[in-house]
Amino acid sequence: MYGAVPSRLIDGSRSGDILVVCTGNIARSAMAEAMLRARLAGRSLDARVHSAGFVAWPGPSPPALVAVMREYGLDLSGHASRSVTGALVAGADLVLGMTREHVWGVLAHDPDAGARTFLIVEAARLGTAVGPRRPDEGLRAWAARVADGRPAGRPLGRPDDEIADPIGEPLDVVRATAARLDAAAGTIAALVAPGL
Fold it and tell me: 0.85 exceeded by the pTM?
Protein backbone atom coordinates (compact mmCIF):
# COMPACT_ATOMS: atom_id res chain seq x y z
CA MET A 1 0.00 0.00 0.00
CA TYR A 2 2.86 2.39 0.72
CA GLY A 3 5.05 1.81 -2.31
CA ALA A 4 5.44 4.41 -5.04
CA VAL A 5 2.48 4.67 -7.37
CA PRO A 6 3.54 3.79 -10.91
CA SER A 7 3.35 6.85 -13.11
CA ARG A 8 2.08 6.93 -16.68
CA LEU A 9 3.75 10.33 -17.10
CA ILE A 10 1.69 11.05 -20.21
CA ASP A 11 2.10 14.76 -19.53
CA GLY A 12 2.60 17.09 -16.58
CA SER A 13 -1.13 17.58 -16.16
CA ARG A 14 -1.83 13.88 -15.55
CA SER A 15 0.82 13.14 -12.93
CA GLY A 16 2.02 14.70 -9.71
CA ASP A 17 3.71 14.33 -6.35
CA ILE A 18 1.84 15.00 -3.09
CA LEU A 19 3.80 15.08 0.17
CA VAL A 20 1.93 15.02 3.50
CA VAL A 21 3.85 16.08 6.61
CA CYS A 22 3.39 16.14 10.37
CA THR A 23 5.60 15.89 13.44
CA GLY A 24 6.56 12.20 13.70
CA ASN A 25 4.97 10.69 10.58
CA ILE A 26 3.19 7.95 12.51
CA ALA A 27 -0.26 9.48 12.98
CA ARG A 28 -1.75 12.43 11.08
CA SER A 29 0.43 12.42 7.96
CA ALA A 30 0.36 8.61 7.74
CA MET A 31 -3.44 8.63 8.03
CA ALA A 32 -3.86 11.42 5.48
CA GLU A 33 -1.44 9.74 3.07
CA ALA A 34 -3.45 6.51 3.09
CA MET A 35 -6.77 8.33 2.80
CA LEU A 36 -5.66 10.60 -0.01
CA ARG A 37 -4.09 7.73 -1.93
CA ALA A 38 -7.32 5.74 -1.62
CA ARG A 39 -9.42 8.76 -2.68
CA LEU A 40 -7.24 9.32 -5.77
CA ALA A 41 -7.31 5.69 -6.92
CA GLY A 42 -8.86 5.43 -10.36
CA ARG A 43 -9.17 9.20 -10.83
CA SER A 44 -7.72 11.46 -13.53
CA LEU A 45 -4.46 12.23 -11.68
CA ASP A 46 -1.73 9.61 -11.40
CA ALA A 47 -0.13 10.97 -8.24
CA ARG A 48 2.58 9.69 -5.97
CA VAL A 49 1.22 10.28 -2.45
CA HIS A 50 3.74 9.91 0.37
CA SER A 51 4.44 11.31 3.83
CA ALA A 52 7.24 12.33 6.18
CA GLY A 53 7.80 13.92 9.59
CA PHE A 54 10.11 16.43 11.22
CA VAL A 55 11.12 14.11 14.08
CA ALA A 56 12.40 10.59 13.47
CA TRP A 57 9.99 8.26 15.26
CA PRO A 58 10.97 4.67 15.97
CA GLY A 59 8.35 1.99 15.82
CA PRO A 60 4.97 1.62 14.16
CA SER A 61 1.86 3.76 14.31
CA PRO A 62 -0.03 3.43 17.63
CA PRO A 63 -2.54 0.55 17.78
CA ALA A 64 -5.53 2.91 18.23
CA LEU A 65 -4.67 4.69 14.98
CA VAL A 66 -4.19 1.40 13.14
CA ALA A 67 -7.58 0.22 14.44
CA VAL A 68 -9.39 3.40 13.39
CA MET A 69 -7.84 3.28 9.94
CA ARG A 70 -9.08 -0.30 9.57
CA GLU A 71 -12.58 1.16 10.01
CA TYR A 72 -11.88 3.01 6.75
CA GLY A 73 -10.59 -0.14 5.08
CA LEU A 74 -7.00 1.13 5.21
CA ASP A 75 -3.97 -0.61 6.69
CA LEU A 76 -1.34 1.40 8.59
CA SER A 77 0.29 -1.61 10.23
CA GLY A 78 3.26 -1.59 7.85
CA HIS A 79 3.85 2.16 7.90
CA ALA A 80 7.33 3.34 8.94
CA SER A 81 8.20 6.92 9.84
CA ARG A 82 10.66 8.83 7.70
CA SER A 83 12.12 12.31 7.90
CA VAL A 84 11.32 15.36 5.80
CA THR A 85 14.22 16.30 3.54
CA GLY A 86 14.88 19.15 1.17
CA ALA A 87 14.72 16.71 -1.75
CA LEU A 88 11.26 15.47 -0.75
CA VAL A 89 9.96 19.04 -0.51
CA ALA A 90 11.60 20.14 -3.77
CA GLY A 91 10.10 17.19 -5.62
CA ALA A 92 6.56 17.73 -4.33
CA ASP A 93 3.97 19.55 -6.42
CA LEU A 94 1.68 19.88 -3.39
CA VAL A 95 2.73 19.75 0.28
CA LEU A 96 0.08 19.30 2.98
CA GLY A 97 0.81 19.89 6.67
CA MET A 98 -1.29 19.52 9.79
CA THR A 99 -0.25 22.67 11.67
CA ARG A 100 1.29 26.01 10.80
CA GLU A 101 4.47 24.78 12.49
CA HIS A 102 4.68 22.04 9.86
CA VAL A 103 4.29 24.59 7.06
CA TRP A 104 7.09 26.67 8.60
CA GLY A 105 9.23 23.51 8.74
CA VAL A 106 8.63 22.87 5.04
CA LEU A 107 9.58 26.46 4.21
CA ALA A 108 12.78 26.08 6.24
CA HIS A 109 13.73 23.24 3.85
CA ASP A 110 12.66 25.17 0.75
CA PRO A 111 11.71 28.86 1.04
CA ASP A 112 10.27 28.72 -2.48
CA ALA A 113 7.70 26.07 -1.52
CA GLY A 114 5.16 28.58 -0.14
CA ALA A 115 3.05 28.57 -3.30
CA ARG A 116 2.48 24.82 -2.99
CA THR A 117 2.43 24.24 0.77
CA PHE A 118 -0.78 24.34 2.81
CA LEU A 119 -2.46 23.02 5.88
CA ILE A 120 -4.53 20.09 4.63
CA VAL A 121 -7.81 21.71 5.71
CA GLU A 122 -6.69 25.04 4.24
CA ALA A 123 -5.99 23.37 0.87
CA ALA A 124 -9.49 21.88 0.85
CA ARG A 125 -11.09 25.20 1.84
CA LEU A 126 -9.15 27.47 -0.51
CA GLY A 127 -9.16 24.90 -3.30
CA THR A 128 -12.95 24.75 -3.15
CA ALA A 129 -13.08 28.54 -3.57
CA VAL A 130 -10.60 28.49 -6.49
CA GLY A 131 -12.11 25.47 -8.24
CA PRO A 132 -10.82 22.18 -9.59
CA ARG A 133 -7.62 21.64 -11.50
CA ARG A 134 -8.13 22.21 -15.21
CA PRO A 135 -7.47 19.30 -17.60
CA ASP A 136 -4.36 20.97 -19.06
CA GLU A 137 -3.09 22.27 -15.70
CA GLY A 138 -0.30 20.60 -13.75
CA LEU A 139 -0.72 19.97 -10.04
CA ARG A 140 1.96 22.53 -9.12
CA ALA A 141 0.21 25.20 -11.23
CA TRP A 142 -3.12 24.43 -9.55
CA ALA A 143 -1.45 24.73 -6.13
CA ALA A 144 -0.06 28.14 -7.11
CA ARG A 145 -3.56 29.24 -8.11
CA VAL A 146 -4.87 28.11 -4.74
CA ALA A 147 -2.04 29.97 -2.97
CA ASP A 148 -3.06 33.13 -4.83
CA GLY A 149 -6.43 32.80 -3.12
CA ARG A 150 -4.93 33.22 0.34
CA PRO A 151 -6.02 36.38 2.15
CA ALA A 152 -3.34 39.06 2.27
CA GLY A 153 -1.30 38.92 5.46
CA ARG A 154 -2.39 35.35 6.38
CA PRO A 155 -0.31 33.05 4.20
CA LEU A 156 -0.27 30.05 6.55
CA GLY A 157 -3.91 29.25 7.09
CA ARG A 158 -6.14 29.84 10.08
CA PRO A 159 -5.93 28.30 13.56
CA ASP A 160 -9.11 26.31 12.84
CA ASP A 161 -7.38 24.78 9.78
CA GLU A 162 -4.94 22.96 12.08
CA ILE A 163 -5.35 19.30 13.03
CA ALA A 164 -4.15 18.41 16.52
CA ASP A 165 -2.07 15.31 17.20
CA PRO A 166 -4.35 12.43 18.29
CA ILE A 167 -1.57 10.31 19.84
CA GLY A 168 -2.45 9.42 23.41
CA GLU A 169 -6.00 10.72 23.05
CA PRO A 170 -9.18 8.66 23.61
CA LEU A 171 -10.55 6.64 20.71
CA ASP A 172 -13.34 9.14 20.02
CA VAL A 173 -10.71 11.86 19.46
CA VAL A 174 -8.76 9.58 17.11
CA ARG A 175 -11.98 8.89 15.20
CA ALA A 176 -12.79 12.61 14.99
CA THR A 177 -9.29 13.30 13.68
CA ALA A 178 -9.66 10.55 11.09
CA ALA A 179 -13.04 11.91 10.00
CA ARG A 180 -11.62 15.40 9.56
CA LEU A 181 -8.64 14.10 7.58
CA ASP A 182 -10.89 11.94 5.40
CA ALA A 183 -13.17 14.89 4.63
CA ALA A 184 -10.19 17.03 3.61
CA ALA A 185 -8.67 14.19 1.57
CA GLY A 186 -11.97 13.65 -0.25
CA THR A 187 -12.29 17.33 -1.10
CA ILE A 188 -8.67 17.61 -2.27
CA ALA A 189 -8.94 14.45 -4.39
CA ALA A 190 -12.05 15.78 -6.12
CA LEU A 191 -10.31 19.11 -6.77
CA VAL A 192 -6.98 17.84 -8.07
CA ALA A 193 -8.48 14.93 -10.02
CA PRO A 194 -11.97 15.97 -11.09
CA GLY A 195 -14.05 13.29 -12.72
CA LEU A 196 -13.51 9.56 -12.60
Answer: yes
